[in-house]
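Handout, tutorial session.
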Amino acid sequence: MKAKLLLFFIVISGPILGQKELKKELFPIGETQTGFRKQFVYKRQLIDNPLALQIPLLEAQDPVVSREFLIYKRQQSNIKWISGLTALLSFYTLLNKDAVSDGFYWSVVGGSAVANLYFGSVSVRHFRRALNRYNELANDGSKMSFKYSTDDRFGSSVGLVWHYKF
């Protein structure tokens, strides 16, 4: 009776205890730049907008990648709000020329330009961190690089080095 109960327990719990979490395959994200235009390459597709990389970046399920990308996304949203409010002020000033003084108008436009430059530069830095961390995870620590070394007996040598994490 005990043997049948033990066998029953092993048969029932075997598939449950034998499950292991499968690591999702991550594909690296490359960058190409032509002039002032920057594009990203993901799974052999060109992507123009960095916000379109939200799905692959968040699928990495890494807290650093998620935090940095969500900070980038929030700051891009702030840039849109500041630009929208400045556009509304400009439109209101166009309709009612005497309602807004020149000094106030130009100080708001200049202040919003400075704020947009600040948020833009900081948000790009956060996106860079998220992208670099994601590519580290996608490459799984393996890197290929050129190495130059000198030796007393053999002289100078150049070689291809492959660092692979086992």
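The second record follows below. Compare its token runs with those of the first.
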Amino acid sequence: MKILQQLLFCVLAALIVASCGTAFQENRQRRAAEKAAEQAAILHAIETADFILEVNQIIPRGFPSRHSLGEYQLRLDGNVVTTRLPFIGVSYEAPAYGNNDDLSIVFEKEKVEVYRDFSKAASKGEYLFRFKGGKGSRPWTVTLSVFDSGSATIYCANTGSRFMTYFANLVIPVKDENQADHH
């Protein structure tokens, strides 16, 4: 009888271990599939230039860096840019008399000519976008370095100010069906 109990215990233990191994393997496969789907969505957003960059760190030249809690974003939708990024630093030109605009980097659904360079994508997973414009008397030159991992760097420069750098994460915009019909 004791041998039968030990045999039954061993069979049950083997079944439990086998089912745990199967569940672990299924979770592993599910996570891999989710990661592949997320990677494909990121690549599609980059290639179609339809994404939001959520700023998580502000790096002004010559000043301490600052963390951002997602309150600053840059939206690229094809060739339309929307953003208001803070400028922290030195401006070599004073704003025009009576102009109450701050020195922020502002694009309000501005249509721009976007230069794209995907030549490094094959080796580094880096996609470059460059455009000029923005509100104010001096246009900003903005370079986006977006990686297939979903991280990004935003470089902003103009002739009258020190350049600014922002670190960001790519977010895929959620479009409702009404927006999808208009594109």
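Points raised in discussion: Residues 1-47 form one domain.
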